[in-house]
Write a structure and sequence with these properties.
13 helices; mainly alpha; about 300 residues; about 75% helix
């Protein structure tokens, strides 16, 4: 067997010398690049392809990327008593994905990215309502402040309702519901089973609407459809491994660098210049979500729990 290149061997040695938090930080930063590139491709592809069609192929190609992982598990491990919940999550997350694509196509990349950071705010409220989780006053205060940041970005009273921005907010809420269902199912369902039903279910749900809005992709568009799924899958892998490896209170804030990537890509590729309210609203949302993450980590340490953030 041929020896690996010396440069690669040296990289592996240096990588192994880094602390878990340092490696996790690098993974989250790299994952953020993939997500920002994904949004850029979606924005270009959205000029000719419907968001539903993009969503369908995102799950089909995503399933193919994960097929080697699925095949490593025996068929009996995919038997489940929670099929309705799996399918419900597929519908909810699929709608959220299509709404996100629509928002990316019609809004500035920085605006959509900042609104997407509101997901933990919805997750806090939903966890209290449906999982019976106890939230202290500080987390409620941080959540309330975060929603003020969302209102600053949407600005419902400035020029009437911005329906595209509301779709972006609604997508964040739908993704939060999907994450809540993952948190609930994780008590009995292994990760590969959750991923399997997520991709198969979402692709099945979107097949009919995708055929309704179907436009034959050109060779270049096939390539971009592949990239959308590839960037999403790679970003998710980096985030999952990063948050599993490092402390969420340290690694989590690194995700917000994605906003910088989005702003730079939007400016240089699409001549997008977000206004001051985008910056103010984004800062409020980020401050609130970082506070929530740190409070969750502190509470988990007090209970003796090895806290890790949820990624989905």
């Amino acid at each position: 067997m041929a020896e690996p290149p010396a440069a690669w061997s040296a990289f592996i040695v240096r990588w192994g010398r880094l602390s878990p938090n340092a490696r996790a930080t690098v993974l989250v930063l790299v994952g953020s690049v993939f997500f920002a590139l994904n949004d850029t491709v979606v924005k270009v592809l959205g000029l000719t392809q419907h968001p539903v069609q993009m969503g369908f192929f995102r799950y089909v190609f995503g399933f193919l990327f994960l097929l080697p992982t699925f095949l490593r598990h025996s068929l009996d491990t995919y038997a489940t008593r929670r099929l309705p919940i799996h399918l419900g999550r597929a519908v909810i997350a699929g709608l959220g994905q299509v709404g996100l694509y629509y928002a990316v196509i019609h809004m500035y990349l920085a605006d959509v990215t900042a609104i997407a950071f509101s997901r933990p705010l919805f997750l806090t409220v939903l966890a209290v309502l449906f999982l019976g989780e106890v939230v202290n006053g500080r987390r409620w205060s941080a959540t309330a402040v975060g929603f003020v940041g969302v209102l600053i970005m949407v600005r419902p009273g400035s020029h009437g309702l911005d329906w595209t921005a509301l779709i972006a907010v609604g997508s964040s809420c739908l993704f939060a519901i999907g994450l809540l269902l993952v948190r609930y199912m994780a008590r009995t369902e292994p990760a590969h089973r959750i991923l399997f039903y997520y991709h198969v279910g979402s692709a099945a749900v979107m097949l009919g609407p995708a055929l309704w809005f179907w436009t034959d992709p050109t060779p270049a568009e096939w390539g971009m459809l592949f990239l959308v799924s590839a960037f999403t899958t790679l970003g998710m892998v980096c985030f999952v491994r990063g948050f599993m490896m490092g402390e969420a209170s340290i690694v989590g804030p690194m995700e917000y660098v994605r906003l910088v990537y989005a702003a730079l890509l939007g400016y240089f590729l699409f001549a997008e210049v977000p206004d001051i309210w985008t910056g103010i609203g984004a800062l409020v949302i980020i401050a609130a979500t970082i506070t929530i993450a740190r409070l969750e980590a502190r509470d988990a340490r007090r209970k003796g729990v090895n806290y890790r953030a949820s990624v989905g």
